[in-house]
Specification:
By secondary structure, the chain is of the alpha/beta class. It contains three helices and eight strands; from the N terminus they run βαββαββββαβ. It has a domain of about 90 residues: Beta Polymerase, domain 2. α3 links the parallel β7 and β8.
Length: about 150
């Protein structure tokens, strides 16, 4: 079992490195601005002592006013974990940057979120449906889906 790192501690370290990029911290999570996601993810993957080399999961939540996307990161080398969250606003075309270039495991997970929640991932190498067919009306995991 991995040890969950303190969101406050990691958030402080991220804020030193990337001022203004951390929105809030939690017990074992950090909420970051979406425009800072890729540079923060790159730092978390490569920084000495952190080295989050494995993306365990990506999921998303519809809070009506915004979508939140959560990244469960794990360092196999150091046996620790962290949840990184980010938000996107607007129901018409919610968009976040893709992290597939950092973790290949994000490929199908971002496609699943795109398919079921309608969140686009800029820079994804093959963003297409994997569950639903082209032209399917709506996004079944959204709260406003009928």
């Amino acid at each position: 079992m991995t040890v969950a790192l303190s969101g406050d501690e990691i958030g402080g370290r991220l804020e030193e490195q990337f001022p203004g990029s951390v929105v809030e911290t939690g017990l074992n999570s950090v909420l970051v601005r979406s425009e800072s996601l890729v540079k923060i993810a790159t730092f978390l993957k490569t920084a000495s002592g952190l080295e989050f080399d494995y993306l365990s999961a990506i999921t998303s939540v519809d809070y009506n006013d915004y979508f939140e996307v959560l990244y469960q990161l794990t360092s196999i080398k150091h046996n620790h974990s962290l949840v990184v969250k980010t938000r996107c606003h607007g129901r018409e075309n919610p968009t976040l940057p893709s992290v597939v270039s950092l973790w290949r495991g994000a490929d199908f997970q971002e496609r699943e979120i795109y398919d079921l929640m309608g969140i686009r991932f800029d820079g994804h190498p093959n963003l297409k449906h994997i569950f639903l067919w082209e032209g399917f009306p709506g996004h079944p995991l959204r709260k406003d889906y009928e």
